[in-house]
Amino acid sequence: MEVTNRCNAKCHFCPRDRTPHQGLMAPEVFEQGLAQATLYRDTVLASDDEMMVSLCGLGEPLLNKHVFDYVRQARAAGLMVAMSSNGSLLDEDKGRQLLDAGLQEILINVGEEGEDYEDIYQLPFERTLENVVRFNEMSDGQCEVIIVLVDHRSDPEHIAHMRRFWADHGLEEAISYSVMNRGGSLFVDHMQYEEYPELSMARDLLAQATGTPLCGAPFGYIFVGYDAQYYLCCSDWEKRAPLGSIFDASFLDVVRSKLDHVVSRQPVCATCNLDPINRLTEELRAEAAGAVPAGSSDRMIEQITADNEIVWGCLNQAGVHELSSEVDLTPGRRLIPVKSL
To answer: Can you give the residue range of the structural domain that contains 82?
Structure first.
């Protein structure tokens, strides 16, 4: 649930200038999204499956004054609740409100320290540090606090250093991510896939191994934008693939549309670094350059094949058992999204 796509940070690895419009999720939108979530849980999921609402999206949730009520409402509906934040606005009062509302998990993105942090995030480091450490102490195990480290330097030693830094401040849980190009919205030198001859090789290898490779990102969760539109996934930074309004369509209704977009790879997936064909393209290039061990591309094909089975399991659960015959698989064809009125 995208509480907002506005942000008070200006990280260079987030293409803020490519967001087409920005805003805050209104209470009536959140309530309808919550209703759709509980409907899906009650009609599709097994009785022992837990469903989590993640208050994140493409911005800083604490910019929305209603976020505390949203946590409380989701918990009252019997859902687990997590939130992502940069921590700079997480003062003592907001921290207490989140804990009192029942927040169970928070992921805080602080992958630098000191002047480097202030240069990259454009936020005051000491305030953020104080906020994060204090909230961790206040939570006292009630809310799991996880530090997120974006490996924008491609430097494992720096990531290890930041893990030690946060462990020294009492935060043992940290996860690291490579930079994502957000569906091509962020220019990354080595992610210009259409320029690489390995692209056609990757496409052929995956066609032989698994037929039509499917990215799992759109099917691991339902993404509801602040504007009440369903979107393909969080990598659709420019909101190019709206799938309908939560006031008109259920979670199940948008699954088929998601599948059609993923299969056609348009308009977002063809330039996204999470796309299986692009992932294999990058691995083939790295293997040819000697940057990864020989045979790593074979192992990636095996992993993508296994991922496909998981995706189909999710689709089967949602009542989708085969690809649509209407989707044109010709490379480069654009699937135009239709926005519900």
So the answer is: 16-179
